């Protein structure tokens, strides 16, 4: 755990009521563990014979799961209906009496059978009472601490309950055994197991006292809850609890996910022995696997929050489930112990993180009034699912046969265990995804990028919600590409057609923006020019203000907004041009815009030489960026093309060397397609492009049709001739089964891309280095093979 994690834990412990409750929980959980171990040992000691001992041992453990099913349902109602503090105190006093009776009965009775029977009955009663206690406690915690610290408090509680106290209990029991037994000649009441049982009972008395006298805060808020709940019968309240879960997608997803996780865990536990056997490893491997699982759990719970930092907890929950389940599926194909250990580590880490996220979400986001019931459902359901999964897995594994498959030198055992693990993994992944979908609080924000961003400390923010009635079109491209020209052309056409059009640009569309523009673009003293990061922030500031005051209001109103430059300019100029990390610029921009993305980006692709010479001939001098080096502008150009290829549906890439009229025509057609206008200009019948090969005659290129009735169709163009020969032109929509199409992937060797006049979107292969206008292929144009260097 890093320092911030430890600081978070310390800060929750500074909250007095929580500190006391944590103490109570630690004592209670220590008592629990020592009680579980001691009762089981104790029961086994009372009878002789290994079979009887075995069944005495397991029946006291199994009995702990039964009450959950019978009496659990009302526990939640009680936790919501009555004062949670009194519920806890009364439960603990009763448990003190019941647990205390186990060793006492043993002292007064001579019959081992009777003693064991009572131990089983008492455990059953105690467990039933615990069921009332847990929802009351769980529902109380969120009221004691601020929401922001819930996670740290859960971390602390989970680590204490499942990490520290079981080990401590085992150590104390072992110590008692080591110290007390050798003394010898002790009366029966002083045997180690007896002492352990007294400790268990006394721990209850202690916690009852602390909760009653020390944590009066638990009673707070009781009145309103009681008033609300008293109007309903207990039965109605029970039904209401289930209804609440059913109709709240978030809680439904959470509950589903938790059950899925427990089912997976149950299958892993149920098959573990067979699984280690199938690895050809012995008992030691079995324990090793379990230890690894627990280490994974501890890592997930202890370090998870520090790793994912600000990631949405709802997303974290779903992702963790998928991680854990994916790891279970991986276990199913592991053929070596090292692989199994690796898988087990991730099963544990995923499960631990999912558990922590789940409990925290339940505590923080479920209303106080129903919290007890929701906790009860989760707790009871989880036990039931776990029990079912363990026993079902045990039965199924026993039923199936196993056969060995040889893969080269490695023999893999295909057994029902593996099939079961695979099924569990796949079902778990499905549950994780389903839970994620139901709970996602950042719809539309890519998951992986969000996760990676969060790990680096910069999660993506969800798109700001607003009613977007208009259409947002952006023109991008290098200097002198003809953006202003095309913006004007499109806006004139749309205005003529009666659209509400807002023409705007970045930087400098607003008053604030104009000031920023003069800061970033004017030539000044070296010392006055903003540094690359400052420049990036200034463009982002301009953009934030622009989007908030111009773009969003216009889109809300239903206008067509046409902007000369937007986010891509920052990615290209500040990212690729200034070589700042593009991811960071992207995050900055998405933060500035609140996630607003254009509907269409028209990329006017131009050779920097051509563009800059156009700017020169305008005779207005150059600004700070225009006077950057040629290689700067080259980087900018390819950054734009890369962005377009990453999201081809949103982009219209046009060769800016084409006549302005032609470009305007294609843009207008695409805009109409975007508006869903079926009439008007027929969509480009034959959007094509050509690939010119470099050294490799097999060079290929993927082309997507822009204005095409089936825009999702990909056209594959494959060169046919020698190095200098221009390749085939295929219309979009050509089935890939066409005899001309032999390959569907872009070759990394393609070096020159020649856009045909009708090509509307070009997706360059990663290594393509030049986009050459189609002019040279047209009748009357230069012969194929001639390279266009600069001027149009
Ligand atoms: N398709 C084109 N072919 C040739 N010249 C063009 C074309 N489009 C624009 N121009 C000219 O190039 C110069 C820069 O155009 P402009 O629209 O201002 O580009 P940007 O806004 O991208 O910097 C202008 O003089 C313009 O008349
Ligand atoms: C919007 C934006 C522009 N720029 C640069 C690109 C341009 O060189 C400059 C101004 O763009 P622009 O107004 O298009 O100038 P011009 O009409 O002369 O082409 O700002 C960035 O570097 N980052 C950005 O985010």
UniProtKB/TrEMBL annotation:
<keyword id="KW-0545">Nucleotide biosynthesis</keyword>
<comment type="similarity">
    <text>Belongs to the thymidylate kinase family.</text>
</comment>
<feature type="region of interest" description="Disordered">
    <location>
        <begin position="755"/>
        <end position="792"/>
    </location>
</feature>
<keyword id="KW-0808">Transferase</keyword>
<feature type="transmembrane region" description="Helical">
    <location>
        <begin position="89"/>
        <end position="109"/>
    </location>
</feature>
<feature type="transmembrane region" description="Helical">
    <location>
        <begin position="156"/>
        <end position="175"/>
    </location>
</feature>
<protein>
    <recommendedName>
        <fullName>Thymidylate kinase</fullName>
        <ecNumber>2.7.4.9</ecNumber>
    </recommendedName>
</protein>
<keyword id="KW-1133">Transmembrane helix</keyword>
<keyword id="KW-1003">Cell membrane</keyword>
<dbReference type="GO" id="GO:0004798">
    <property type="term" value="F:dTMP kinase activity"/>
</dbReference>
<feature type="transmembrane region" description="Helical">
    <location>
        <begin position="195"/>
        <end position="215"/>
    </location>
</feature>
<feature type="transmembrane region" description="Helical">
    <location>
        <begin position="374"/>
        <end position="399"/>
    </location>
</feature>
<feature type="domain" description="Thymidylate kinase-like">
    <location>
        <begin position="475"/>
        <end position="663"/>
    </location>
</feature>
<dbReference type="GO" id="GO:0005886">
    <property type="term" value="C:plasma membrane"/>
</dbReference>
<feature type="transmembrane region" description="Helical">
    <location>
        <begin position="253"/>
        <end position="272"/>
    </location>
</feature>
<feature type="transmembrane region" description="Helical">
    <location>
        <begin position="316"/>
        <end position="335"/>
    </location>
</feature>
<feature type="transmembrane region" description="Helical">
    <location>
        <begin position="419"/>
        <end position="436"/>
    </location>
</feature>
<dbReference type="GO" id="GO:0005524">
    <property type="term" value="F:ATP binding"/>
</dbReference>
<keyword id="KW-0812">Transmembrane</keyword>
<keyword id="KW-0067">ATP-binding</keyword>
<dbReference type="InterPro" id="IPR039430">
    <property type="entry name" value="Thymidylate_kin-like_dom"/>
</dbReference>
<dbReference type="GO" id="GO:0006233">
    <property type="term" value="P:dTDP biosynthetic process"/>
</dbReference>
<feature type="compositionally biased region" description="Basic and acidic residues">
    <location>
        <begin position="774"/>
        <end position="792"/>
    </location>
</feature>
<dbReference type="InterPro" id="IPR018094">
    <property type="entry name" value="Thymidylate_kinase"/>
</dbReference>
<dbReference type="InterPro" id="IPR018095">
    <property type="entry name" value="Thymidylate_kin_CS"/>
</dbReference>
<feature type="transmembrane region" description="Helical">
    <location>
        <begin position="21"/>
        <end position="44"/>
    </location>
</feature>
<feature type="transmembrane region" description="Helical">
    <location>
        <begin position="56"/>
        <end position="77"/>
    </location>
</feature>
<keyword id="KW-0547">Nucleotide-binding</keyword>
<dbReference type="GO" id="GO:0006235">
    <property type="term" value="P:dTTP biosynthetic process"/>
</dbReference>
<comment type="function">
    <text>Phosphorylation of dTMP to form dTDP in both de novo and salvage pathways of dTTP synthesis.</text>
</comment>
<keyword id="KW-0813">Transport</keyword>
<dbReference type="Pfam" id="PF02223">
    <property type="entry name" value="Thymidylate_kin"/>
</dbReference>
<dbReference type="InterPro" id="IPR027417">
    <property type="entry name" value="P-loop_NTPase"/>
</dbReference>
<keyword id="KW-0472">Membrane</keyword>
<feature type="binding site">
    <location>
        <begin position="477"/>
        <end position="484"/>
    </location>
    <ligand>
        <name>ATP</name>
    </ligand>
</feature>
<feature type="transmembrane region" description="Helical">
    <location>
        <begin position="341"/>
        <end position="362"/>
    </location>
</feature>
<feature type="transmembrane region" description="Helical">
    <location>
        <begin position="115"/>
        <end position="135"/>
    </location>
</feature>
<feature type="transmembrane region" description="Helical">
    <location>
        <begin position="284"/>
        <end position="304"/>
    </location>
</feature>
<keyword id="KW-0418">Kinase</keyword>
<dbReference type="InterPro" id="IPR036259">
    <property type="entry name" value="MFS_trans_sf"/>
</dbReference>
